Every structure is written in C-alpha cells, then in structure tokens.
Amino acid sequence: MKPFKILSVNFFLTLLLVSCATPYLHYRDDMFAGRGLLDEGSYKEAREVFVNASREQRRAAAFAFAATASYKMGDLPAAEQFIAEAEAAPYGNYVYARILGYKALTLLGQGRQDEGLAALKAYIDYYKQLYPLMSIEKVEDMYQRRQVNMARLERLIDDEVINYEQEIQQAATTGTGYYATRPPMGIINEGFTIY
Fold this sequence. Notes:
The chain is an all-alpha fold. It contains 8 helices and no strands. The longest helix is centred in the first third of the chain and has 39 residues, at 2-40. The radius of gyration is 20 Å and the shape is globular.
C-alpha cells in the first residue's frame, strides 16, 4: 500500500509541474515561431501567433511583437492597442525600446504629430541610455527638425531595436558581448530569453 501512495504522490507532483511549465513552453515556442514569420514578412500570420502567445503568458514581448506585425501590416489602430497592452504587461524591460519605437511610429503614422514626436523623444532618451548605434543621431535629427521620413525612421528603429535585442540575447545565452557585464534595466539570468 505504501509504494502505491508514494507513486501516486510522485505522479501528482509530476502532473503539477508539467501543467505549470506547459503554458510558458507554448508561449516560448509561439514567440520563436512568430519571430520567424515576422522576419519572413508574413505579418498577419506572425500577429496571430503573437496574440496566441499573449493568451498563454501575459508578457510585454508578445504584445510588443504583435504591435510590430500590426504596424507592418498597416493596421495602426491594432498596433496602438497592442502597444498599450505591452506598456501595461509585465516583463517589459527588454522590449521597452521596441515598445517606445513602435509607439512613435504608430502615432506618427496616424498623423498625430505632437503625440508621435513626444513618443519619439521618449524613444531617443531611452535608447541613448543603452549602448546605442550611431544611427540614433539620424533619429534625433528628424525629431529636432520635426520632419520625419517615415520609411527611413522605421528602418532606423528596426535596426536599433533588433541590434539591442540581439545583444541582450547574446549576453544571456553566451555570457559575451557588451551587456554580459552591464545588463541594462535589470539582471540577465541564466536561461533568459527576450521573450
């Protein structure tokens, strides 16, 4: 009787651990798949995968990447909604540059010049605290002149954000690179991903 009881307890604990881990594993897999779709230019499919990921785990990254896909589809109201969700969701520190950058792009794309420029200033101020690419000077020049070339701004923000996220991921996975010894806005733990 006693071995059966121990086996039953072990089985129950195993089920409990698996059930707790499964939502995050699905989330992580969806984030990885969504990034692949986003990189391929399959924006609608990417957004669907990111939305599904946000249902599995309410994390800022899922909403930030859904906003990115929505913006690239030209669905600016959806992009704005996903940005608001990303700002309110937890675990946003490593995608905060993406959130700020796409907030600026979305507001400017909707013709909301004053709000968009204020968001762009917030992006510039935040990004300059990091180890920024020199391209931030081009973004800052557009802000100061109040003349924004949307296609160019999108390319610059994409390059800056992607570079930053790759640097963070490198530090987390290999322990090398600029952020390995200078983690920004938080601590990089073993096993960390930007998702």
